[in-house]
């Protein structure tokens, strides 16, 4: 039997946005140094806008972020801006050897984790699939789709990104549980709020809108089972049940 | 997959073209294919000192950030500024206009640790 994976339950909160990203990077560095692979599950409070590793700072409307009480943080991974707060975020850190012969392939790594996420979402009655490349170019992650992402029908439910170094990979991503009262178009520059908001809403879907459960621990539990089944791994601890 | 005979290769999928004491570096055809469409390249600073196998550059493709390592140690003598506007050159011409940086080598004997085309092809094909 293969080594277990670590399960890091940070659903209880308590970390600010910078600490969330530091925790994900720490997982990657631990795995690169020989620690067991890990799945971390967490939420964001207060809301936060995460920017891709190389996304220009100018994309952010700092005044609007302050107005909405949104923390701004830079992800160690690629991609574009993502507003957290009504999502469940996962982070996976594993050695590239866990990916198998295609370990150098970015797409193969996405596909491996996608299989686990799709299996978990299926437990919630959600029929998700790997996204097709397309959508609007611009600063908003959820306005576009790539092979890294998951869709239901043609609408994006989950956006993911990676950092690969020292023989290990970190992949994290956000699954939309619901929507906040504002969205990326309110806190980013270069988006025409009216038009962009309509387009963003049409391009995305939440578990709530799909009629699926949205209780974070219930969704997290389904994801854990998805990883167990799809990747044939076992975890060294269990999630606390919904309190 | 293309493995030019005249180059040396690292296990991290960088190529090196040696000209005197200068080593021109890029990523291999295999690496660019594995990364997918490159959308951003973070190059080292000219004048920076790098050690062999130390991270000295990053590339982003399909929302994935990957480290690029210095195959040999030395000082960064030149970087391919054109990649700022045209990162896709890494995909289109990995051994040509997609070169990344030039290292003025501090210890050319480090080249001995790199592979020739035959050994590198074997490494890739065994994966």
> Roughly how much helix do the residues of chain B carry, as a percent range?
10-25%
Radius of gyration of chain A: 17 Å
**Number of β-strand runs of chain B:** 9
| Annotation field: number of helices of chain A | 6
Low-confidence runs of at least 5 consecutive residues of chain A: none
* Assembly category: heterodimer
Span between N and C termini of chain B? 14 Å
- Tell me the major beta sheet of chain B: 6 strands, antiparallel
Run of helices and strands of chain B: EEEHEEEEEHEH
Query: From N to C, what is the helix and strand string of chain A?
Result: EHEEHEEEHEEEEEEHHH
Could you list the spans of chain B in which at least 5 consecutive residues all have pLDDT below 50? none
Note the overall shape of chain B: globular
> What is the number of E strands of chain A?
12
**What is the count of DSSP helices of chain B, taking H or I runs of 4+ residues?**
3
Separation of the first and last Cα atoms of chain A = 33 Å
Strand fraction band of chain B?
35-45%
The helix fraction of chain A, in percent, is 25-40%
Structural class of chain B: alpha+beta
Strand order, largest beta sheet of chain A = 1-2-6-12-11-10-7
């Amino acid at each position: 039997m293969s080594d277990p994976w670590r399960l890091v339950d940070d659903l209880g909160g308590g970390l600010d946005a910078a600490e969330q990203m530091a925790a994900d990077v720490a997982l990657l560095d631990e795995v690169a140094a020989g620690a067991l692979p890990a799945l971390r599950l967490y939420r964001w409070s207060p809301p936060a806008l995460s920017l891709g590793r190389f996304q220009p700072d100018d994309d952010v409307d700092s005044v609007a972020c302050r107005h909405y009480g949104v923390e701004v943080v830079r992800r160690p991974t690629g991609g574009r801006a993502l507003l957290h707060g009504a999502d469940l975020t996962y982070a996976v850190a594993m050695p590239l050897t866990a990916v198998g012969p295609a370990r150098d392939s970015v797409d193969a790594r996405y596909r491996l984790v996608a299989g686990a996420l799709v299996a978990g979402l299926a437990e919630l009655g959600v029929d998700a699939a790997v996204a097709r490349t397309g959508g609007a170019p611009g600063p908003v992650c959820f306005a576009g789709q790539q092979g890294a992402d998951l869709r239901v029908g043609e609408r994006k439910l989950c956006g993911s990104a990676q950092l690969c170094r020292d023989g290990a990979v970190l992949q994290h991503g956000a699954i939309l549980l619901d929507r906040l009262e504002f969205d990326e178009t309110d806190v980013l520059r270069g988006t025409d709020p009216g038009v962009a908001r309509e387009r963003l809403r049409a391009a995305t879907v939440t578990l709530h809108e799909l009629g699926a459960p949205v209780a974070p621990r219930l969704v997290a539990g389904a994801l854990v089972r998805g990883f167990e089944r799809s990747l044939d791994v076992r975890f060294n601890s269990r999630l606390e049940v919904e309190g | 997959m293309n493995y030019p005979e005249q180059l040396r290769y690292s296990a991290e999928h960088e190529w090196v073209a040696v000209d005197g004491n200068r080593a021109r570096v890029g990523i291999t055809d295999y690496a660019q294919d594995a990364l997918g469409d490159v959308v951003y390249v973070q190059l080292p600073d000219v004048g920076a000192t790098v050690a062999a196998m130390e991270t000295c550059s990053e590339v982003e493709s399909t929302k994935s950030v990957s480290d690029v390592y210095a195959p040999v140690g030395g000082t960064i003598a030149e970087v391919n500024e054109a990649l700022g506007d045209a990162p896709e050159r890494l995909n289109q011409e990995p051994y040509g206009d997609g070169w990344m940086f030039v290292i003025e080598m501090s210890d050319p004997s480090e080249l001995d640790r790199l592979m020739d085309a035959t050994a590198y092809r074997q490494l890739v094909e065994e994966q």
